[in-house]
Design a protein that fits this description.
Mean pLDDT: 95
Number of strands: 11
Helix content: under 10%
Structural class: mainly beta
Low-confidence stretches: none
Shape: globular
Radius of gyration: 13 Å
Distance between the termini: 37 Å
Number of helices: 0
């Protein structure tokens, strides 16, 4: 199983990014997929996850209204659209797969991450 994130980079505050995560090694169409992030000096935190149907999503309160998660099961890919970026969004963003939509997210696989840096 391999999860490969892309789309990170350096962006000014107020800008946007679209992160992608391509999964391979098996079919993930019936798995929960989502994103975590880890800022410098902080613990890794949940960002968002999406059910296999794509119809149910769940966000960390801190990103609601600015982050949008989506998926394309035909491509085994999950996306994270990030708008109105803030310096506090600076972190390594990780894709993860597995687990459930309720309760603490106990995913099965996690990618290597993509760096997002927001300048003020």
């Amino acid at each position: 199983v391999q999860l490969v994130e892309s789309g990170g980079g350096l962006v000014q505050a107020g800008g946007s990014l679209r992160l992608s995560c391509a999964a391979s090694g098996r079919t993930f169409s019936r798995f929960v997929m989502g994103w975590l992030r880890q800022a410098p000096g902080k613990e890794r935190e949940f960002v968002a996850r999406i059910a296999w149907t794509g119809g149910t999503t769940y966000y960390n309160d801190s990103v609601k209204g600015r982050f949008t998660i989506s998926r394309d099961n035909a491509k085994n890919t999950v996306y994270l659209q990030i708008d109105n970026l803030k310096p506090e969004d600076t972190a390594v963003y990780y894709c993860a797969v597995g687990g459930a939509m309720i309760g603490p997210w106990q995913y099965d696989y996690r990618g290597q991450g993509t760096q997002v840096t927001v300048s003020s």
